[in-house]
Structure formats: C-alpha cells, structure tokens
Amino acid sequence: MGLSTVAGLLVLLVSLVSAQDPILNPPTPSTPTNQADRQFRVVYEWNVLDFAYPTEDDRARALYHGAYIPKNVLISDCKPHANRLYVTVPRMLAGVPATLGYFVRPENNGRTDPEIVPFPSWEMNKRGNCSALQFVQGIAIDKYGIMWAVDSGRTETLQRGTNHVTCPPKILLLDLKRNGTVVWRYEFPAEIVPSGVNYLNKIVVDDAFGGFAYITDNSGADPGIVVFSRRLNRAWKVRENNSMRAAQNAVRFAVNGTELNFSIHIDAIALGPYYNPHAQGDLDPQVDPLIGNQNYERNVYYSPLSSYHLYSLPASLLRDPEFVLKASPRDILESVTDYGRKSSQTDGMIMDNQGELYYGLLGEHSIARWDSYTPFTAKNQVVVARDRTHIQWVDGMGFDHEGYIYAITNRLHNFVAGKLRSDEVNFRILRAKTNALSYVETPDNVFNNDVRYKYDGEVDNSLVHYGAGVSSTTP
C-alpha cells in the first residue's frame, strides 16, 4: 500500500459528531469541521516498529546482540501534546530498546511509519537501570504539560525465564515543556504494588487537591485501582472483587477470527466530568452559598478487559485514604455503580471534556461513544467506527488541542499468540475530529450556568472559552 493511499484511507463508516447544544455544552475549539474530518483516518501505520538510533551502526549492533528484535515490539498507549505524539512500548518480550517514545504528529505529506524517538532519552530507557523506565504501558498528560508515566518495573511479562528485570514499580512526572525533566519520582510500597508481580496498566489524572492519579493494576493476584496523591506523596489501593475481576462469561471471545481465552481483570479507566450529586436542578452561583467541593463530584469509570460491564466509583472516595483504610468490602461494593452491559470487551477507553466516553469493542472491531449524562442503554451506545481490517484491538487513546481524538490499534491478539506477520500492517494510529478536548481540560470552576459544568474553584477563563485564536504547534 502506498503512502498516498494511507494518507487518504477512510476507516470510519459513521459520523462522529452530532449537533451540540450551546447551552448544555462548554465551548470547544471553533475551527470548522468538514465531513471528512469527522471520520477516522489512518495517520500512521507500521508492519514492524523501528527506533531512531543515533547511527545505523548502533541499530546494527542492537539487532546483532538482541537488544532490538523488531517482531517483539508493540505500541500500546498514545497521548498527543504540542507537535508530538507520545507512545508507550511495553517490554512484554525481549528486544524492546525503549519503553517510552514519541514522533512528530501527522503532516499532510509526512512519513506514515516514523521511527520512535526514545523519551526523555536513551539513557532514561535503559533496561536494567532501576532509575530509568523499564515497562511503561499507560501515560497521562495533565493540563499543565506534565506527563505522568507509570512504570511496572518488570520486563518480558509474556516470557518465561530468569533473565527478567525486576525493579521497584514507580511513577515519574516528566515536564514536557523542559523536554522530559523529571519533576517527581515515587516508588510504590510493596504492600500496595509488589515488585515482579504487578501489572500497572492504564492511568488517568485528576488535578483536585494537588493532583491524583488513578491507575489500574490488572495483576492476577491483586487487581485494583492504585491511587497516588502528589501532595501527600502517598499511594493506596482500592480493591473490589465483584467489579474489578474478570467475569467468567467474558473470558472467551474472538477478534478477526482468532479465538481468545483471556481472564484479564480491571483494565480500562476514564475520569468523568464534574457534576453535583445533590442538586435536583440548576444552582445559581450568585445566591447559593453551599457551592463547594462536597457538592461536586467526578466518577472514575472502569472495566475489566474480560467483562461486558462498565462500572464507576466516586473520585472523592478514591481520594480518601481513610475511607479505603476503614471501609469494609461491602462499603466499597455499595459505592460501585454498575451501568450495565456493553456489546463486547474493552481495552482502550477515554473521556472527553464534554462527558462523552469513547471505548473500543474488541470483538466487534469497533469504537463506540456514550454520553455519560444519559442512561447506558444500547440505544445510547453509538458505534462511531467499525472496520474488520483497520480496527483490530483498540488500545490507548488521546486527545489533542485541536479537537482530534487518536486511537491505537495494535493486533494484540496476534502479538500475544506470536502470529504477527511482518508482511502485513499490524499497528495503526487512527484520528478523527470530534471538536472536543481531553478530560483533563474539563473546567473546574463555577462559571457555566449549567449544573453539569459548574464547579468550585478559581475561575480560569482559558478552560471554558476557546475562540478563533486557538492554534496548535503542530507543523
């Protein structure tokens, strides 16, 4: 397939964008959107993934010594920022030279199979150096341009053997405005995230009270949501067996004809917009004296990969270490909301700043969307993209500042089975215009008269108004 064909390839069969009510939805980038932009298109694709080695001799040495084995490299998550698209490359197999990297975002005539540039550097990706990154699968970028990178600290998770790296699991905060300078480092205690057996997967960040991260650990022995507070420099774990463990009726499914038997616990995670759990109608911020943090809530949505259901817990409970410490299993269970059934299993999932949840449907080769202010019914779960060739295993997703959503499809079902073919396209990044932004741009202030978007905190107009002057640094 030629590069010009790739650039023009249409994947989406259904329009993404419906009419927006200007009263019920906060303003988003005002760039006009044409019909073609509303459809998912392939912007990158690879048969195998390569890295930007300093010289060809360096690449040759890595190939010779097994430090780089092309068929063992897979991309999992993606997050756009400025003119870069950051990707994670988990070390599931031997021969992965870097676990975090980037490339320049799409250009009309640019290369569609770019080499991955290790980030922040080659040294910070050195296998076996516990100060460096060992196994990064999930990343998040907050509204201040700080990347939160979760490192499981272990390597070759799909291979048996004794030559595996086992480092303390950690989270690093990297300042993207300073080319990845580490501004925070935290190692998780063994009683929360044990070395060698954890599987830290997806992450979302919440800027409340100094910054929190909610991280899914889908390890077989101790799955749950790991909560990290930057202000407290402390972590704890929320466990709930009914909603966070694999459902036996969902462990068997097929992707593009490949039969799978996966018992995988909590995986996908998303952070919803603020709402007032006590209000029956709109509040007037001019006269109501009780607008405060206790009146405004966010939901943390999640789903095991081996499950048909979508669940949530209130973010306020996850942020409270005392609740987690003292709550009984029944207390936590009673705090869980079960929204009901999806039509298939889900790996990748993300919320935008309008309260729209996007998620993959693995067995249906689809991407779906749900307005989180409506019931989670089959009618309200809208399939926005379906394609058996180009949408095989939707993994990480991200939003840029121009109103585009990005999604990785990586044929993980074939990768795990060792069935990837180097003469076929295996990895793709799709993009579509939604005219929304990332959930991290959700306004956190009392500014909009709609109760759904009215929050406690200092007013920051830059979060709720985007005029014609908004631009991107994308080339």
Automatic annotation (TrEMBL):
Tree of life domain: Eukaryota
Compartments, as annotated in UniProt: Secreted
Record keyword Signal present: yes
InterPro entries assigned: 6-blade_b-propeller_TolB-like, MRJP/yellow-related
UniProt keyword Cytoplasm, yes or no: no
Organism of provenance: Culex pipiens (House mosquito)
Record protein name field: Protein yellow
Signal peptide: 1-19
Main location per the UniProt record: secreted
Keyword annotations of the record: Secreted, Signal
GO cellular component: extracellular region
Family of this protein: Belongs to the major royal jelly protein family.
